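Help wanted!
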Amino acid sequence: MRERALPLRPSQYDLTSRCNLRCEGCLYFSGNDYLGHVDADEGGGVERFFAAEAARGVRYGYFSGAEPSLVQHKLVIAARHLPYGVVFTNGIQRISAEVPYRIHVSVWGGAATDKALRGADVQQKQVRNYRGDPRAVFVMTLNARNIDEIGEVAAMCADNDLALTFNHYSPTARYSRFIQGEGPGDRYHAISSAADNLVLQPVHLARAHDAIARLMDDATCKVVYSHEYNALIHDPAGLYPELLPGSDVAADCAVRLTNALRHYNTDFSASSEKCCTPNVDCRSCRLYAQSYATVLARATRSLRRPQELARAIRMWRVWCALFLNDDGLAAVASAP
Ligand code: SF4
Ligand code: SF4
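Answered by r_m:
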């Protein structure tokens, strides 16, 4: 890793405020931070922006949107400057082979639940677009309604030569108010209620843990996950029991924004929020990219302790498999 890829020096880029779905409880459209930014679209400006990012040392991009496949010319430009990255997409439009990054395709459950929660039937398109594509990892966002559908999603991935991993629905402040009847609905807050919503309770976490553990032991599906992460992420206490004094912000989260780790809005202004998902409640945050970064940072911090080195290496291997589209590096990372 040191020879081939490090330092990664990541930053995060929202590429557009447009999306072609309306997912219930969408993190992006849950707050006001996305408002007031006009998408930067002019080719020369995008090129200069990513050239400047590379010049300040960034080598890894987290690309999201709303929906980045709608502006994929920006991904092609970014790839000329940042060697590594991951694109978070809903998979409806295929991202061109010119984009060399990992591509994470979000899935919200089995076909019927996915359609009910996202407002459209998209799984056939996702599979058609990414079947057998080595860049793609399908990411099932677990929520209170879909734990029993893990097997269905795993079968879909296995049938189509697709890798699978898991995210956890993490409620925003607005979603929590909405389900309590304290806030107005809109197209992203429409079908949930106090009695029937997406929030993972301890009972869901326990069932998810057990279902994923069984799946990892079943060789029919390519599951990119680890037993250690499975235990950590499903701990009902969460990853962030401690908050910064006098705030609601997690004390030990590896993706809080700094001068180096920046999050850019769609007009390429730098965000001044706590992180890239500022509407999420830190106490119940289990978002996978963020959680992997935190778990990895903690493991790396302790790797000089005797038993911890092997654990840190195992964590890095999973991270590489999930977030790097680099066959040579994957071979290094998976070497015994
Ligand atoms: S979750 Fe993603 S795909 Fe769904 S509405 Fe939000 S931005 Fe669009
Ligand atoms: S990534 Fe999650 S835990 Fe970290 S600051 Fe953002 S909401 Fe809080």
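OP: Thanks! One thing I noticed: The first strand starts at residue 10 and ends at 14.
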